[in-house]
Amino acid sequence: MNIIKKLIPILLTTLLVAQGGSGKLSPVVTYWKTLSVDEKETFLFSYLTQVYETHTELQDSEGFGGFTEWYYKNRAELIYGIFDKLEEVTIAEMAEWIDEFYSHGEYSNRPFYEALEFAYRFADAEGGTMWQKYENLKFETIKPGTD
To answer: Does any domain span residue 105?
Structure first.
């Protein structure tokens, strides 16, 4: 039953984000845009921690196949990669890159997970400033997939 309690917020968030294709801002994006810099860092760290804890709980309660495997491939794998990157970049930098993602009109209502993918790719890019990272990657090559 404990696993259900952890999955409900994630599933609700996923449903709300999925409804965002109508041109209106999704609730998660709207919420993100209302946060202060410090609140964005807290939200981001909480989100990362929640995905990690959910994956750990799934492993403990459900094993490593089925939904646990799907969850790893579709959510947790990226989060583990971001945690590894936190030795090189800060949560504040990750939040800036998420803001950058949402500042582009065509991405302003994309799911939060895609913004995380974008931030992760920026964390991997060479260059000391955002401009250098743009020059090294070019926005076209770091935009999220359109699955």
So the answer is: yes
The radius of gyration of the chain from alpha carbons, rounded to an integer in Å, stands at: 16
What confidence tens digit (pLDDT) does each residue in 67-97 have?
999 999 989 999 999 999 888 889 999 999 9
Q: Which domain holds residue 74?
A: 24-142
Domain total for the chain?
Answer: 1
User: Do the Cβ atoms of 109 and 24 come closer than 8 Å?
Assistant: yes
Across the chain, the runs of DSSP E, i.e. the strands, are: none
Query: Nearest 5 degrees, angle CA 52-CA 56-CA 62?
Result: 135
pLDDT tens across 17-63, in order?
A: 444 444 566 788 888 989 999 999 999 999 999 999 999 999 988 88
Looking at the domain assignment, is residue 147 inside a domain?
no
Position 80 in a domain: yes
